[in-house]
UniProtKB/TrEMBL annotation:
<protein>
    <submittedName>
        <fullName>U-box domain-containing protein 38</fullName>
    </submittedName>
</protein>
<dbReference type="InterPro" id="IPR016024">
    <property type="entry name" value="ARM-type_fold"/>
</dbReference>
<dbReference type="InterPro" id="IPR011989">
    <property type="entry name" value="ARM-like"/>
</dbReference>
Amino acid sequence: MALCHLTLVQSNRAKIIKLGAVGTLLGLLKDPAVAVQVVLVMVNLAACTEGRSALLVANAVECLVGMLRIGNESGSMECLVPEPSLSVGRERWGRLVWRRRSE
């Protein structure tokens, strides 16, 4: 939860992104015990351009759509939260989501 609060500040988001934490966060999504907190951090990261770019490069959309497809009860609805933030000004986001849905 502390990481969630830290990512509310832009300078902290930039540092977290530069340290490469996005991949680690995506890996933590598989753990139901922390999935909700990880999604909250991802929402905060998606609030800035650098965060959206880092999440897209790390295939966050595919990971979130995959969680929705699996139907993981602890994180399925929470996966819907960061997706609109990732889509802001991004055609690539829409293509990724539609490609994953059609599979």
